[in-house]
Amino acid sequence: xxxxxxxxxxxxxxxxxxxxxxxxxxxxxxxxxxxxxxxxxxxxxxxxxxxxxxxxxxxxxxxxxxxxxxxxxxxxxxxxxxxxxxxxxxxxxxxxxxxxxxxxxxxxxxxxxxxxxxxxxxxxxxxxxxxxxxxxxxxxxxxxxxxxxxxxxxxxxxxxxxxxxxxxxxxxxxxxxxxxxxxx
Length: 184
Ligand SMILES: [Zn+2]
Ligand SMILES: [Zn+2]
Known about the structure:
two-stranded antiparallel ribbon
């Protein structure tokens, strides 16, 4: 969605443009790699464009709801990314004056909300998704989901002393079996 912001720039009063926009469902798949998601439920943006300190500025809230795989256990879970902020708007032709407080338009005098979302939502994508912060992940050996309980390979590796004891008892049980066999 494109918004012409010339009206806001020209009029020196409290003129503002409100927007409330949702990415079309058929276009959501275009954002899968940006969000590193398996499926996107929605992406929406709302806010205002107004004049601040003589410059056009955009106040915005972007919200995305998506399904992504947990980086540790591969389980697919629902995540919400929500960001809000404020940027001054500079045209590409005035780019030299801009810093990180600015959004640079691709086309002078026009804010393209799709581009805007790509630029600012992309920054907020987490380095990795987790199903929950303390997810124990999968056993690297047998692949068991350790959130459902420990697996036996994990116990042995963790406590080599117990493995020695296991062998000790095994020998003694074998001896007992031999004795039992003798009695038969
Ligand atoms: Zn997990
Ligand atoms: Zn295991």
